[in-house]
Amino acid sequence: MDFAINNIPREYTIIAEMMSCWVFFFLFKPRKSTVKIILYSIIVIVLEALYLRISKDIQFWFWPVHMLFLFSIMFLYMKIIIGRPSKTVFYYTIMSFLVAEFIAAFEWQLIYFYRWNEILPKWTMTIITLLFYGGCLVALYFLETHWGRDSKHIEISVQEDIIAASIAIVVFLLSNIGFFKSNTPFSGESILDLFTIRTISDLMGLVLLFAFQSRIAQIEMRNNLAILDRNLREQYNKYRNYQDSINLINMKYHDLRHQMENLKEQINGKEQRILIDNIESELREYRPYFQTGNDVLNALLDSRRTLWNNNHITITAVADGKLLEFMNVADICSVIGNALDNALESVCLVEEIDKRLIHIEIAEQKNFVMIVVENTCEQHVKFENGLPKTTHRDKENHGYGTQSILQVVQKYDGSVVFDQTGDWFSMKILLPAKQI
């Protein structure tokens, strides 16, 4: 069997690898501008073209090293354009590599079977190849966007990279071993048999990798839901604990206020009156500060009063709490509690005390309930998929507050927008007024 004549032209393999990378560029929404993407693509094409010319007379035993070099170029190409962590880029480079291997093998098997390479001119073959690759990759793009839309947001671990690499290596060996040795269980009697084995092996490897990716996404989603549930319970428990305490304090405050009024009527000394006035002044610190019309909202705001007093934070609230009566208590705790905690954490980092500001507004606007929480924020906030990224190093246990807010808002068919303009950060929620 003449491998050199009958195998896939090397330039076709490189075209498949380049085009498969582009699919994942569209999926991940690259952070580079279109001009830079085109520039880097030209550099990669030139680099691979030069390598093809240099390695034109490559020895057969050197083929795995040749493929490893091309894989390295793909990895660097995707790393520069996508800008994700190396572990994630490595995984999707493996995916892109297997996709390229499959579509190149499948297309060349059809060409060889129908003898198109013998009856059609080279330029026609090139057009057919580009159209075939493009069609397969468009199908892959829609497959990923509809079935794997959560997969592209997963964080890949080293162990998962090792498993994916092992799958790719085994698939590559099974699909190509027949070209190296003809007397193996994975060899065939004809070149078409070898092409069939290679195409099926590549397809099975892709299916296995997609199944593995789906499993990773399911596990991560389950873990995220568990963390979101824990976050919700924490906010609700904070509210319940504070509500129990504040009810007791309100009772004692009410009783003590009446006792102080009776005591003032029974004494005549000036010094004693001053002492009682001071005691009354201190007692007033424990009376409910916010009266929004919603006991849950009042408790959430009052429970953080000590924190903002100690950190010299000015908080203003223009809130009609009655508009939130259609919401579940736990949902109010999740939205308002997480928003306030994030705002307080951000404002505490502001050095100038006069600039430590938080504003809350809840109002009805054009058949929507509008919830706005704004605060001073001197740090530059990075966003991913519309949500602010956590600044904590321990990302596994932080950053779920905003996801909890989004989950609750979606539950009520609403929308939420996070934004930063200068040193002012805002969260704006709109919920349909039909809920009221």
Give an account of the 3D structure.
- With 436 residues, the protein is of the alpha+beta class.
- It folds into two domains: 225 residues, no CATH class; 146 residues, Histidine kinase-like ATPase, C-terminal domain (Heat Shock Protein 90, 2-Layer Sandwich).
- It is 65% helix and 10% strand.
- Strands 1-2-3-7-6 form a five-stranded mixed beta sheet. Strands 4-5 form a two-stranded antiparallel sheet.
- The chain is elongated and about 115 Å long.
- The N terminus is likely disordered.
Features:
436 residues, alpha+beta, 14 helices
What would the average pLDDT be, to the nearest integer? 78
Per DSSP, the total helix count is: 14
Radius of gyration: 32 Å
- With strands numbered from the N-terminus, the spatial order across the biggest sheet is 1-2-3-7-6
Quick rundown:
The chain is of the alpha+beta class and 436 residues long. The chain folds into two domains: 225 residues, no CATH class; 146 residues, 2-Layer Sandwich (Heat Shock Protein 90), CATH 3.30.565.10.
